Amino acid sequence: MIPYGKQDISQQDIDSVVDVLKSDFLTQGPKVPAFEQAVASHVGAKHALAVNSATSALHIACLALGLAEGGWLWTTPITFVASANCGLYCGAKVDFVDIDPKTYNLCPKELEAKLVQAERKGTLPKVLVAVHLCGQPCDMQAIRKLSKKYGFKVIEDASHAVGGKYKSEFIGNCRFSDITIFSFHPVKIITTAEGGLALTNNDSLAEKMNLYRSHGVTREIEKMTHEPDGPWYYQQVELGYNYRMTELQAALGLSQMLRLDKFVAKRHVLAKRYDKLLDKLPITLPWQHEDSYSGLHLYVIRLQLDKLNKSHLEVFEQLRDNGIGVNVHYIPVHTQPYYKHMGFKQGDFPNAEQYYSEAISLPMFPKMTEQQQDKVVEVLTKVLTQ
Ligand SMILES: *Cc1c(COP(=O)(O)O)cnc(C)c1O
Predict the structure, then answer these.
(1) Atom of ligand 1 nearest to the CA of 58
(2) Which of 21, 182, 192, 201 is the most exposed place for a label (fewest CB within 10 A)?
(3) pLDDT digits over 287-322, tens only?
(4) H/E stretch holding 3
């Protein structure tokens, strides 16, 4: 089976991790700050905080932005559940903004209309999580403008967009947001096995996230309520968690960072090839905004079902049966049972639901060969035209 995504691990990656195993520190050593520094300087952000997953990064980002009971978090329904769940972790309420049928990202016009209504009802969001689906950035300029007008904070969930650019600058520089989140799960652009990172230019947000990721405990005297009892002393000043990244993960990430730009460039080569080879099929190919250099985590096609004599499910199953490890990203979050129990229902976000009924993610990963890609094209062509 040709998988839809797969990590690329080099001998240098392996050696870096083995070196850590032989060193004095398996956690809380020099590799984590070195990895943070490498990412921060690559994207042009002031602070980077590495954690054990993007899910944890989303949680501490929401906490640092003051999201709490009674507050609202808004995001897109076409995302992984983690982009919404972080609001629930904080005791806040979650709502969604429908997608733009062309970009598949949260639609700024829908957002504005919903904000106008929310202002009247007194239910404006505290935090908006803007997800760069497939790696293509959201319309951050429009979102920033609305965030200033309506007073909400912006988190970019750039789990798919590591190494991508918006308006010629690396995503993660937080020019149009308060905090940006990266994921390093093995299917994503670079990996630390499990792992994530939060970027910000704001000193106070960085300080808060630093506390939340490690028990809310500080060793800095100026943050304590009184003089330390002695050299052993630390104080818990917040309720935090253990969301720390290990040295092994950071060493892997640091080594992977050296190939980040190459990984993304290879994804662009593969995507351009797909664009050309799939041009004549009854499917909608991914649309790319000219302002963006996508991280291209995913290559999503949409079936033009009115031109096919097969269902979405049949096409999907026939691809899998023929060794093509396709996937679907994503099941609209508001249709998950957990969210339905909160009152959401089918029909709430029609563009998202329409997208879901047609979308298929084709295999794409840096190690993919032309032969593998030709096989995907051949099988897909057969399945769609037979
Ligand atoms: C993968 C992913 C996450 C969660 O990442 P983890 O590192 O697995 O916690 C969150 N949001 C999006 C959009 C993702 O794709």
Answers:
(1) 10
(2) 21
(3) 999 989 999 999 999 999 999 999 999 999 999 999
(4) none
Residue with tokens 């899910």: 55
Closest Cα to residue 143, out of 180, 107, 93, 167?
107
Measured from the CB, is residue 218 less than 6 Å from ligand 1?
A: no
Token pair for 382: 């057969």
Residue 218 lies in domain? 2-257
**CA 81 – CA 32 distance, rounded (Å):** 27
Packing angle of the helix pair 370-385, 260-277 (nearest 10 deg): 30
Q: Which of 31, 153, 188, 208 is catalytic?
A: 188
pTM: 0.98
Q: In what order do the strands lie in the sheet with 179-183?
A: 47-51, 196-200, 179-183, 153-157, 127-131, 72-75, 93-96
Distance 83 CA to ligand 1 centre (A): 7
Ligand 1, closest atom to CA 187?
Answer: 1
Using an 8 Å Cβ cutoff, are 88 and 58 in contact?
A: no
- Please count the structural domains in the chain: 2
Q: Is the CB of 185 under 6 A from ligand 1?
A: yes
Q: For residues 83 and 59, give the distance between their C-alpha atoms in angstroms, rounded to a whole number.
A: 9
Assess whether 169 and 313 both reside in one domain.
Answer: no
Q: How far apart are CA 356 and CA 216, in angstroms?
A: 40
CATH number, domain of 343, equals: 3.90.1150.10
Residue 313: the pLDDT is 98
